[in-house]
Amino acid sequence: MTDFTPYASLFGGILIGLGAVILMAFNGRIAGMTAMLGGVLEPKSSDSPWRLAFLAGAIAAPLIATLLGAEFSFASPTTGVVLAIGGVIVGVGVTYGSGCTSGHGVCGLARLSPRSLVATLTFMATTFATVTLIRHGFGV
């Protein structure tokens, strides 16, 4: 059973959108988390500091929210190995899809990019099919 949290989700979505708008307004860059991580990992990247700051903020925000009393829970019926394999598969998909859900779904759709619309619809259809298969096809 998944908990439905409309107010927390709305507030989180507003913060993500605000962060994307601020990054675009002040830095002229799209807030794609995968591209940011890739830029930090590239040794020759000259714009790593802002990427590192953005990623640090994405990590620090839930930690600060927890200190302020927010409660987060995460449970997975799978092992760490399966989660790691899933992460690698997502990484491959992001590479071939030329972006992630934050880059295409948040920023690309806001820019009315047809490529981002196709990518986001593909992400959503795949997610829907995966959840349906896992929850109903395998009886989990």
Write the layout of secondary structure elements.
Blueprint: H1 6-27, H2 33-41, H3 48-67, H4 80-96, H5 101-110, H6 114-137
Helix pairs in contact: 2-3, 5-6
Main location: membrane
Protein name: YeeE/YedE family protein
Membrane topology: Multi-pass membrane protein
Structural class estimated from helices and strands: mainly alpha
Which stretches of 5+ consecutive residues score pLDDT under 50?
Answer: none
How can the largest sheet be summarized? none
The SSE order reads HHHHHH
In percent terms, what proportion of residues is strand? under 5%
Give the number of helices: 6
Oligomer class: single chain
Q: Can you tell me the overall shape?
A: globular
Count of distinct strands:
0
Q: Into how many domains do the coordinates divide?
A: 1
Cα(first) to Cα(last) distance is 11 Å
Average of pLDDT: 84
Radius of gyration: 17 Å
Helix content percent band: over 70%
List keywords for this structure.
mainly alpha; 0% strand; 73% helix; 140 residues; globular
